C-alpha cells in the first residue's frame, strides 16, 4: 500500500521539520516587514501597506457578495422536496415545478452516467463521543432519525472513547437501546485507550468505529462502494434533508470514490446562550463555511463530512496521528489517488454548538483552544511538501503547487491579516513622524476600513436571519445585545483568530507539538 501516513517524530527528516517551521517564519516575516521597510523607505512602506489594505478591501467585498449568493443557494436547496428529486434521478425523469439545476443534472447523466441509483445507496453515520452528556448526544441521534430518508438504509454507530469513562459508556449504550429500532443497525464501538503511535483524539476513535462498520457491511454482503459514511461530532445535528441531498449529489458522480462530500457547518444550536465574543466568532465561522461552499477549489474536509466506504478502506480510514484528522483526510486521499480527488459541496446544513463551557472564563479559554486546534492544520504544510515534492508520486505538479500555495497563504493570512489591517498603518509614523506619506497613511487606512465596515450590515442582517427561535427564558433585550456584539469584531479577530494561529504556528516552529486532541467542553443551558 502507498505510504500516506504522517511520519512519527523519529521518522521526520530535517527537510520535513524545516517545512513545519515555514508558516511561522512567513507569518513573522510579514508582520515585521512594515517595521523593516519603515527604516528603509517610508513611501515604499506606505505603498506596501496601502496595497495590502486595498487587497483585503477587495476580498471583503467579494466575501459579502458570495455570502449573499451562497446563503440563497443553501436555503433554496434545503426547501426542496428531495423525495421528488431522488425519484426523478432514479428514473431519469424531470417532474414539474422542480428547479432548473435539477433538469440540467438529469440531462448531464446522458453524457456522464452515474455509478449508482438513489435506491442503491446506504448510509453509515458515525457519531464521535468522548464525555458528552445525554443532553448533547441525544438531540444528534434524534436529528438523524428526523432525516427525510429511509431509516432502513441508515446504520448508526456511536464511536465512544474508553478513556471517557464508564458513565458515558452507559449513556451511549442506553441511547442506542432506546433508538435502535429506527435504523437498519445501531451499535456502540468502544475505542481502547493507549494504542501505540496514536495521538489522543478523534482520529483513532472514528478509525476504530469505521473498521468495525466495514466488517458489519461485509457481513451483510453490502458493496462498500455504495455506502456513504458521514462523520458527526456529538453536537452535530444534520438538517432533515442532509442525507437526501447527499444521496442526490453522490448519485450524480461517475466516479464517486474520488469525491468527498462537505455539508455546510452552521454554529447556531446554542447561539442564544453563549457569551457575546463567542457569538461573533461562531457567526463569522458559519459565514466563512457558507462562502467556501461556493468555492469548490477551496473546499476541504471539515468536521462533519462524508466519503464512500470503499475510498475510506483504500486510504486506511482517517489518520490517528494528527488532531486535525478531518482536513488532513483531504491530503491523504489526494495523494492516495494521485491527485484525482475533489471535495463537492452538499448544500445542506449541519447545525453545531458554539463554544459554551460551565463558566464565562472557561468558555473564553475553550474558544481559544478550539481555534488553536483548527489552526493546527498548518502542520499539513510539511506533509504536503514531503509527499508532493520530496517523495516519488504521480500527482500533477502544477495542481499540487497551487494547492500548497493556497494552504500556506491561508494559514499565514489567518495569523497576520487581522493584525496588519488594524495596526500596520500606524507603523510608518512611529519611525518617520515628519514624513508626509507616513502621516497621511492612517487617514487613508481609516477611510478604507470605514467603507469595508459597510459589509458588516450584511453580516448583521444574515446573522439575524440565521438565528434559531429565541428561547422563552430570554427577554426582548437579548436581541438588542445581538446588535451591539459586533463592536467586538476587531477584538475577536486579533485575540482569538490571529493569536490562536500564531500560537499553533509557533509551536511548530519550536517543536512543541500538540499531541492530544483538546476536546471542547460542551455545556447546555436550561
Describe this protein's structure.
The chain has 526 residues and is an alpha/beta fold. It has a domain at 71-356: Spore Coat Polysaccharide Biosynthesis Protein SpsA, Chain A. The protein contains 19 helices and eight strands. The protein has helices spanning 14-40, 42-78, 82-91, 100-111, 134-145, 166-179, 202-219, 242-250, 276-292, 309-314, 325-336, 360-375, 380-389, 397-423, 427-431, 436-452, 455-465, 477-484, 489-509, and strands spanning 122-129, 154-161, 185-191, 227-233, 237-238, 259-267, 305-308, 342-352. Helix 13 runs antiparallel to helix 14 and helix 14 crosses helix 19. It is globular and about 80 Å long. The relative contact order is 0.15.
The CATH architecture classification of the domain at 71-356 is Alpha-Beta Complex
* Spatial strand arrangement across the major sheet: 3-2-1-4-7
Secondary structure category: alpha/beta
What is the H/E string? HHHHEHEHEHEEHEHEHHEHHHHHHHH
The oligomeric state is single chain
Task: Identify the CATH class of the domain at 71-356.
Answer: Alpha Beta
Rg estimate, integer Å: 24 Å
Beta fraction: 5-15%
> Could you give the count of β-strands?
8
CATH topology of the domain at 71-356: Spore Coat Polysaccharide Biosynthesis Protein SpsA, Chain A
Largest sheet: 5 strands, mixed
Percentage of helical residues? 40-55%
**Which homologous superfamily in CATH is the superfamily of the domain at 71-356?**
Spore Coat Polysaccharide Biosynthesis Protein SpsA, Chain A
Global geometry: globular
Amino acid at each position: 500500500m502507498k505510504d500516506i501516513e504522517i511520519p512519527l517524530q523519529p521518522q521526520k527528516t530535517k527537510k520535513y521539520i524545516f517545512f513545519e517551521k515555514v508558516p511561522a517564519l512567513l507569518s513573522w516575516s510579514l508582520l515585521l516587514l512594515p517595521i523593516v521597510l519603515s527604516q528603509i523607505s517610508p513611501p515604499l512602506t506606505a505603498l506596501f501597506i496601502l496595497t495590502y489594505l486595498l487587497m483585503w478591501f477587495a476580498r471583503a467585498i467579494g466575501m459579502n457578495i458570495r455570502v449573499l449568493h451562497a446563503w440563497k443557494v443553501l436555503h433554496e436547496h434545503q426547501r426542496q422536496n428531495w423525495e421528488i428529486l431522488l425519484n426523478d434521478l432514479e428514473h431519469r425523469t424531470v417532474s414539474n415545478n422542480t428547479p432548473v439545476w435539477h433538469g440540467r443534472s438529469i440531462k448531464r447523466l446522458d453524457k456522464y452516467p452515474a455509478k449508482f441509483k438513489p435506491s442503491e445507496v446506504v448510509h453509515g453515520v458515525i457519531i464521535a463521543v468522548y464525555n458528552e452528556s445525554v443532553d448533547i448526544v441525544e438531540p444528534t441521534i434524534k436529528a438523524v432519525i428526523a432525516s427525510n430518508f429511509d431509516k432502513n438504509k441508515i446504520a448508526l454507530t456511536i464511536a465512544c472513547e474508553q478513556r471517557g469513562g464508564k458513565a458515558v459508556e452507559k449513556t451511549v449504550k442506553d441511547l442506542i437501546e432506546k433508538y435502535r429500532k429506527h435504523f437498519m443497525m445501531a451499535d456502540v464501538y468502544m475505542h481502547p485507550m493507549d494504542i501505540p503511535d496514536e495521538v489522543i483524539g478523534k482520529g483513532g476513535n472514528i478509525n476504530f468505529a469505521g473498521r468495525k462498520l466495514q466488517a458489519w457491511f461485509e457481513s451483510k454482503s453490502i458493496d462498500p462502494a455504495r455506502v456513504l459514511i458521514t462523520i458527526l461530532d456529538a453536537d452535530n445535528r444534520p438538517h432533515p434533508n442532509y442525507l437526501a441531498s447527499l444521496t442526490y449529489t453522490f448519485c450524480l458522480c461517475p466516479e464517486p470514490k474520488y469525491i468527498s462530500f462537505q455539508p455546510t457547518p452552521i454554529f447556531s444550536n446554542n447561539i442564544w446562550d453563549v457569551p457575546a465574543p463567542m457569538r461573533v466568532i461562531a457567526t463569522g465561522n458559519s459565514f466563512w463555511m457558507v462562502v467556501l461552499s461556493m468555492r469548490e477549489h477551496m473546499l476541504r474536509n471539515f468536521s462533519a463530512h462524508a466519503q464512500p466506504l470503499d475510498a475510506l478502506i483504500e486510504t486506511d480510514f482517517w489518520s490517528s496521528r494528527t488532531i486535525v484528522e478531518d482536513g488532513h483526510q483531504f491530503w491523504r486521499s489526494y495523494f492516495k489517488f494521485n491527485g484525482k480527488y475533489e471535495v463537492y459541496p452538499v448544500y445542506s446544513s449541519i447545525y453545531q454548538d458554539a463554544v459554551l463551557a460551565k463558566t464565562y472564563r472557561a468558555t473564553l479559554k475553550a474558544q481559544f483552544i478550539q481555534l488553536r486546534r483548527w489552526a493546527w492544520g498548518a502542520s499539513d504544510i510539511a506533509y504536503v511538501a514531503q509527499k508532493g515534492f520530496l517523495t516519488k508520486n504521480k500527482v500533477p505538479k502544477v495542481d499540487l503547487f497551487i494547492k500548497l500555495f493556497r494552504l500556506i497563504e491561508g494559514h499565514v493570512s489567518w495569523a497576520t491579516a487581522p493584525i496588519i489591517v488594524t495596526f500596520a498603518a500606524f507603523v510608518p509614523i512611529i519611525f518617520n513622524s515628519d514624513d508626509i506619506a507616513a502621516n497621511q497613511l492612517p487617514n487613508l487606512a481609516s477611510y478604507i476600513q470605514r467603507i469595508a465596515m459597510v459589509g458588516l450590515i450584511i453580516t448583521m442582517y444574515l446573522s439575524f436571519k440565521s438565528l434559531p427561535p429565541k428561547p422563552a427564558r430570554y427577554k426582548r433585550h437579548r436581541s438588542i445585545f445581538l446588535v451591539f456584539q459586533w463592536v467586538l469584531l476587531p477584538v475577536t479577530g486579533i485575540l482569538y483568530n490571529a493569536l490562536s494561529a500564531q500560537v499553533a504556528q509557533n509551536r511548530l516552529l519550536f517543536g512543541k507539538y500538540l499531541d492530544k486532541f483538546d476536546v471542547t467542553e460542551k455545556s447546555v443551558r436550561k
